UniProtKB/TrEMBL annotation, chain A:
GO terms for cellular component: plasma membrane. Keywords: 4Fe-4S, Iron, Iron-sulfur, Membrane, Metal-binding, Oxidoreductase, Transmembrane, Transmembrane helix. This is QmoC. Residues 59-84 form the 4Fe-4S ferredoxin-type domain. The chain crosses the membrane at residues 116-139, 159-179, 232-253, 265-286, 298-318, 330-349. It comes from Thermodesulfovibrio yellowstonii. Coiled coil: none annotated. Pfam families: Fer4_8. NCBIfam families: qmoC. The lineage of its organism: Bacteria, Pseudomonadati, Nitrospirota, Thermodesulfovibrionia, Thermodesulfovibrionales. GO terms for molecular function: 4 iron, 4 sulfur cluster binding; metal ion binding; oxidoreductase activity.
Length: 382, 744
């Protein structure tokens, strides 16, 4: 016997506010579940999630890996006969989950409400302008140049302490938030379904393989372009992470300060990744606009992350080009903008849509660990 | 007036090429002794019609046999007032469906022969005209009844409205709000606002209202009913032309739902009707009965005791919209209140779909498909168990109050149940009958008809107490001519549907009074001036006609001699088919006429050329056959089709007549009967099947195989089945072998 169902009107209203305003139109016909390319035959979604959402049954929604197993292809939304947009509703539920699991909650609020848009960017901007003020750039001190007299962002804001200290602090903060959130989420998931597999690392390995191959995205029907766009962005991020790693190696181990020549491996990987990121983000935006009618435009929450990542890519490239072009003021401005976007990306990662990579991965690992599909198949066979 | 027959053979549509018209002409002139025989290339042309008209004017032809196309086409062209007209469908039955030229010719000759015989035997009917009144009685003053009354009055007819309560309004009077009839976006709760309709009824000088009144007795026939109304002990008898029964429904007895839903056991489990009363009492504030607390969580159980074989197996059609309305009583003005609805299906047809959508969009209205399997009380809450839902395999939901959507039971159910019980007891003998009357409480009867077949409108077997109306073809028409059932007494429906229904029934009542005034059948043979004329001197008072008449048109005196009430009659001829003495005839349709026709069909002497007579319903099976012909489907040339008004008019003597003449088999094509019957005359095909069961005896006496006579049910759209039915039948006949009487 299940626990008594407690419909929660307020939570239902929260979902509606969070971008699920079409939620109430669902009449449980199950078209969504049938057309969903990701929903397994024996453990289907998102029909039941739509009903839980209408009734505001928070536990059933949150303690359920299916919410994250949805990759928001939008096929359900495209085929829904009532315009209930299940894809959008699940997106709204995911947003509420991120808010629920990632502390502190005020940050979650900032990234989901346009009211705080300015504040989000104002904080890093003030931070970096402050650093510039400390260095005296606003009081007449000349901005130092590189060894050969060229523009050098390292000379402008030396990595230690002006870059590395705030960003390492941010990274640590993000990791703590994620650790906390993932732990709570895992415990919630495990309170409903049993972890059956012992080799959690095996599950993690399989999940990473799935993510790298982007297997699930390939299945999406309505938004076919999404696979290319998302995989480009993913590999761009991996490339940029490698770039950062090599750069850190140069700086900390080899004590070789940037800028590096364009022919150096770090620049090659960095530039290619940067281009991939910009193309990927361009495709993301094009796809979203193209499919807006069929699968929904997405919420503010989505668009904030799109803006931040696109901003990171564009300002990064702009800073590099302007540096090479020796355009002083514009170059420095772009570099500061770039830092602001990168800050936003890291600082709000546990609360913004960026958190999807962690929670979705967690849900995927859990689904494998709990033998979600296999268990049902065995039950059927028995 | 002396009969003069004219035979007109059309050569159009390929008839001229397919058959030897000259030979037929000679047969007409010489063998059949038809005084006027004409042939024309296209009789439906102006020239052809003028030719016939000229014969009528100059030669005094008054019985016209047109051999050409189906009687269902060219009806405007071939209408000759004052003449008996018989159309022989040579084109369909001889030319299109038969393959070989010899067989085409033989069939054409047979059909012409039968057509001429029909003209020889038939007379032009004289209408049955008595003094009639045109006023309309409406029984029941609810939404349906008041609407029917105002509609009939608006059309200029006097109306008498009888209501048993002291006020008009019926069930609508008990409602707090109603589902609005206009745009739902302007508000989901409409005012009931009965006053304008009540005022319209009471202020209309053409409508006379009797409240707190009952019908004590109805005698007579359409156009000439004697209705006795009783009010406060005094009675009054008035003449009425037609009657509309709009007595509506009663809620299903929720006490029968105690076991399942705890109704009666838990105070806060109420029916949707009680919930409506609660809302009305407190002007929309919902206070639960147990402690008068204003509730915030209410759970509605849809189909409570409905679509449930243990209670009422049908859907009442109005509860879904009613619940969506009542859910708003809970949520409107209470932003934190929830109305949960557990349903089997939401049934909101037509425009109501928008009402459903509006309700869905309200956050506080939570809907889920599921099956409520139990309700229990815990502290001050009710816990409802829901199975088969997405909320969980066996979910438990807490609520402060539970509303059961119980359904509609027609007011006719109680009298019917009593009458069924009485009939069953009577079948066991006089003693059992007397005991039944003594021990069973007699419910209040509604119409108290002075008809031999019973005091109330007939019901459909398996129809759950609703009045039998031919809902496929003729809604409102009950099996009592001139009495029309309207609204939820006929079929479950909501207020808007009942109002629409009332308009239809008012028109039917008007059709009735107008037709009987002219001596025409009311419906479905709404052109027919013939009526049954029994030769009572030969009547043996066997009561078959009085029992079998589907419309209760025949009463009987103490000795059992039938007493025909022609205005109640629909002219189907069931009495003609039933009568073992063959004394019932119409001017243009009789046992002798059809008997002579089939006795004159050619019977080939060769053993491998069977001859089959097909007796065919002219409303469904015959048009289906013609459609088969139109599609050029080929039929066995052994067949000869004879159209009957209804298979119910089939007299068993025809089977004996045909088989003794050497015909190898008889095929009866009638309408679907039973629960979803399609028979225009409700019982005709069923009675034919019943009589066929008895034909065994006759065939045995003739030492013939009973399989030679078979009946099939065919719908008008099933033309494609005709060839396969016939092939199957022919197969059987060929297996049995030729009729031993052949050649005698």
């Amino acid at each position: 016997m299940d626990k008594p169902v407690k419909p929660d009107l307020n939570f239902a209203k929260e979902i509606i506010k969070a971008g699920g305003e079409s939620l109430k139109k669902c009449y449980q016909c199950s078209t969504c579940t049938v057309v969903c390319p990701l929903s397994p035959d024996k453990a289907p979604f998102p029909r039941k999630e739509m009903l839980y959402a209408q009734w505001g049954i928070k536990e059933k929604l949150f303690q359920n890996p299916d919410i994250w197993l949805c990759h928001h292809c939008g096929d359900c939304t495209a085929y829904c006969p009532r315009g209930a947009k299940p894809g959008e509703v699940l997106g709204a539920v995911r947003k509420l989950m991120i808010q629920n699991y990632s502390p502190p909650s005020f940050l979650a609020k900032w990234v989901s409400d346009p009211k705080y848009l300015l504040l989000i960017f104002l904080i890093p901007l003030l931070l970096f302008l402050g650093e510039m003020a400390i260095l005296g750039y606003f009081s007449g001190t000349e901005i130092p140049r590189g060894e050969n007299g060229e523009i050098s962002y390292v000379a402008f804001l030396p990595a230690v302490p002006w870059i590395d200290v705030p960003f390492m602090a941010l990274a640590a903060f993000a990791i703590i938030c994620f650790y906390n959130g993932v732990k709570r989420y895992w415990l919630d998931l495990a309170s409903v379904a049993e972890v059956k597999r012992k080799d959690i690392y095996g599950c993690i390995y399989e999940t990473i393989k799935d993510v790298l191959l982007h297997k699930k995205f390939q299945l999406c029907g309505v938004n076919k372009g999404r696979y290319t766009a998302h995989i480009l962005v993913l590999y761009a991020f991996i490339g940029l992470a490698i770039t950062t790693g090599i750069a850190a190696f140069y700086e900390w181990v080899l004590r070789w300060e940037s800028p590096y020549p364009q022919t150096n491996i770090v620049k090659i990987i960095g530039n290619i990744s940067g281009i991939a990121l910009i193309i990927g983000m361009f495709l993301v935006i094009v796809n979203r606009s193209k499919n807006a009618v069929k699968q929904g435009m997405g919420s503010y929450f989505d668009w904030l992350l799109i803006t931040i990542i696109a901003g990171v890519g564009v300002t990064g490239f702009l800073a590099e080009i302007l540096r090479l072009a020796e355009a002083e003021t514009l170059g420095y401005a772009s570099y500061i903008a770039h830092l602001v976007f990168v800050f936003a990306l890291f600082a709000y990662a546990p609360h913004s849509k960026m958190a999807h990579m962690v929670y979705r991965a967690t849900a995927m690992v859990f689904a494998k660990a709990s033998l979600r599909e296999e268990a049902i198949k065995q039950e059927e066979a028995a | 007036m002396e009969k003069k027959i004219g035979l007109y053979i059309c050569k159009g549509c390929g008839i001229g090429e397919a058959v030897d018209v000259e030979k037929i002409q000679n047969i007409g002139k010489n063998a059949l002794r038809v005084p006027v025989v004409q042939v024309h290339d296209v009789f439906c042309s102006r020239e052809g019609i003028d030719l016939i008209k000229k014969d009528i004017a100059e030669q005094g032809v008054n019985s016209i046999v047109i051999a050409g196309c189906s009687p269902r086409v060219k009806t405007y062209e071939f209408s000759f007032p004052g003449c008996f007209v018989e159309r022989v469908p040579l084109r369909e039955l001889a030319v299109w469906t038969i393959e070989t030229p010899e067989e085409k010719q033989l069939a054409a000759e047979d059909y012409i022969k039968m057509g001429v015989i029909k003209a020889q035997k038939g007379e032009i009917p004289e209408p049955y005209i008595i003094e009639t009144v045109k006023s309309i009685l409406v029984v029941g003053g609810g939404i349906s009844g008041m609407t029917a009354a105002t509609e009939a009055a608006k059309a200029g007819y006097d109306v008498v409205l009888v209501e048993k309560e002291s006020e008009l309004g019926g069930f609508a009077r008990k409602l707090y709000k109603r589902v609005p009839t206009d745009d739902y976006t302007k508000g989901v709760l409409g005012d009931v606002n009965l006053e304008p309709l009540i005022n319209e009824v009471t202020s209309n000088p053409k409508i006379k209202v009797y409240t707190s009144s009952k019908i004590e007795k109805i005698d007579g026939q359409p156009g000439d009913f004697d209705v006795t109304i009783s009010k406060n002990g005094s009675t009054e008898t008035i003449k009425i032309g037609a009657i509309i029964q709009a007595t509506g429904w009663k809620p299903y007895d929720a006490k029968k739902l105690t076991k399942k839903y705890g109704y009666g056991k838990f105070k806060d489990v109420v029916t949707n009707f009680e919930f409506e009363e609660l809302a009305k009492k407190n002007k929309g504030v919902i206070k639960r009965p147990s402690d008068e607390r204003v509730v915030k969580t209410v759970l509605f159980v849809q189909c409570a005791g409905q679509r449930d074989p243990e209670h009422i197996p049908y859907c009442s059609g109005m509860c879904c919209a009613t619940t969506l309305k009542q859910a708003r009583y809970v949520t409107d003005g209470n932003s934190d209140a929830t109305a949960m609805v557990i349903y089997k299906d939401i049934r909101t047809p037509g425009k109501l779909e928008y009402y459903y959508k509006e309700a869905q969009n309200t956050p506080g209205v939570m809907l889920a498909k599921g099956e409520v399997t139990g309700i229990r009380e815990e502290y001050d809450k009710l816990v409802v168990t829901v199975e088969d839902s997405l909320l969980g395999d066996k979910a438990e939901i807490e609520a402060e109050m539970v509303v059961l959507a119980t359904g509609m039971v027609p007011t006719t159910k109680e009298p019917q149940d009593y009458l069924i019980g009485l009939a069953e007891a009577a079948a066991k003998g006089d003693e059992a009958k007397a005991k039944y009357i003594e021990t069973t409480k007699k419910p209040e009867f509604i119409l108290n008809l002075g008809y031999r077949q019973g005091p109330e409108l007939p019901f459909l077997e398996g129809g759950f107490g609703f009045v039998d109306s031919n809902f496929i073809c003729f809604q409102y028409e009950t099996r009592r001519t001139g009495i029309y059932a309207v609204g939820p007494v006929r079929q479950p429906m909501n207020m808007t549907e009942a109002q629409e229904d009332a308009k239809g029934a008012a028109l039917k009542a008007i059709q009735c009074v107008e037709h009987v005034a002219k001596g025409i059948a009311v419906h479905p043979r709404a052109w027919d001036t013939s009526f049954p004329e029994p030769n009572l001197t030969k009547c043996t008072a066997c009561k078959r006609c009085t029992e079998e008449c589907p419309f209760g048109a025949i009463d009987e005196d103490e000795k059992g001699v039938p007493f025909y009430k022609p205005n109640r009659c629909r002219r189907c001829g069931t009495c003609m088919g039933a009568c073992p003495e063959r004394i019932v005839s119409f001017k243009d349709y009789s046992v002798d006429m059809i008997g002579t026709m089939l006795k004159n069909v050619s019977v080939p002497s060769e053993d491998d050329r069977p001859r089959i007579i097909v007796l065919c319903c002219e409303n469904d099976a015959f048009p289906a056959t013609e459609t088969a012909a139109l599609h050029r489907l080929k039929l066995d040339p052994a067949l000869r089709f004879i159209q009957l008004r209804c298979l119910g008019s089939m007299n068993l003597v025809w089977i004996a007549d045909a088989l003794s003449k050497g015909v190898d088999g008889m095929l009866l094509l009638g309408c679907k009967f039973g629960e979803n019957y399609q028979c225009h005359f409700a019982k005709g095909s069923e009675l034919a099947k019943y009589r066929l069961g008895k034909v065994q005896e006759t065939l045995d006496r003739l030492q013939l195989e009973s399989d030679r006579v078979q009946m099939y049910e065919v719908a008008i759209d099933e033309y494609w089945r005709i060839p396969s039915i016939i092939d199957e039948f022919m197969e059987k006949i060929r297996q049995i072998g030729p009729n031993p009487f052949k050649g005698f």
